[in-house]
């Protein structure tokens, strides 16, 4: 596996975490709160068409590389302007604590 170079981090993203807020009726609402901004390398991994609710929808997956952080969890997401990337998996690239490889699914807004 080829190691990532710092020069490849060309995309500026926001890392967001979910926060549950009481809705006043005994339930809660999930809001997304920016945890930090970071630079990343985004590589499209695959795309496929899915039949959902009698409509064809595209599912686009990406591999996103960022500098190593201890606080990145699969329940978080990344945002690049109007694009949202749901984090599916987090891999410590080569187990060296230098890079995180995030397997992501782009959400359709």
Work out the strand percent: over 45%
Strands, total number: 6
**Could you name the CATH homologous superfamily?**
Bacteriophage SPP1 head-tail adaptor protein
Give the overall form. globular
Q: Rg from C-alpha positions?
A: 16 Å
CATH T-level topology: Thrombin, subunit H
Domain count: the total is 1
Strand arrangement in the largest pleated sheet: 1-2-3-6-5-4
Number of discrete helical segments: 0
What integer is the average pLDDT? 89
CATH architecture call: Beta Barrel
Main beta-sheet strand count, sense and barrel state = 6 strands, antiparallel, barrel
The helix/strand order is: EEEEEE
Structural class: mainly beta
């Amino acid at each position: 596996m080829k190691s990532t170079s710092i020069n490849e981090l060309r995309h500026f993203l926001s890392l967001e975490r979910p926060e549950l807020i009481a809705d006043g009726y005994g339930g809660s609402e999930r809001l997304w709160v920016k945890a930090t901004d970071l630079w990343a390398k985004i590589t499209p991994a695959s795309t496929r068409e899915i039949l959902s609710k009698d409509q064809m929808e595209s599912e686009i997956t990406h591999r996103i590389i960022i500098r190593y952080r201890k606080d990145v969890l699969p329940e978080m997401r990344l945002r690049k302007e109007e694009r949202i990337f749901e984090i599916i998996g987090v891999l410590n690239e080569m187990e060296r604590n230098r890079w995180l490889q995030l397997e992501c699914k782009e959400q359709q807004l």
